[in-house]
TrEMBL record:
Coiled coil: none
Gene Ontology cellular-component terms listed: chromatin; histone deacetylase complex
Protein name: Uncharacterized protein
A GO term, aspect molecular function: transcription corepressor activity
Length: 91
């Protein structure tokens, strides 16, 4: 299961957190946030979900180690799937 899908499932009772998580990722994709700012914002957002912070931190570390500055992440939400939209996070 991809990280984003896992987070979506975990936050299904707190959908506002999931939507804001996608918003943060989209800001990164548009170049408005650095990777460090994404990490800080996600850590603040998931302050009551320490395991999700750890998973996201590990994910960022793997992306950095594997792709030297490029993070690619497909984000599919029900709303975006219904519209046929898929976001890619590339930086």
């Amino acid at each position: 299961m991809q990280l984003v899908e896992h987070i979506k499932m975990r936050l299904q009772d707190e959908n506002h957190l999931y939507i804001y998580f996608l918003f943060i990722l989209n800001l990164y994709r548009m170049g408005k946030l650095s990777a460090n700012e994404v990490h800080k914002n996600v850590a603040d957002l998931f302050q009551d979900h320490h395991d999700l912070i750890t998973e996201f931190t590990n994910f960022l570390s793997q992306c950095h180690a594997n792709s030297i500055g490029t993070i690619t992440l497909a984000m599919n939400t029900q709303a975006h799937q219904q519209k046929g939209e898929v976001f890619s996070l590339k930086r």
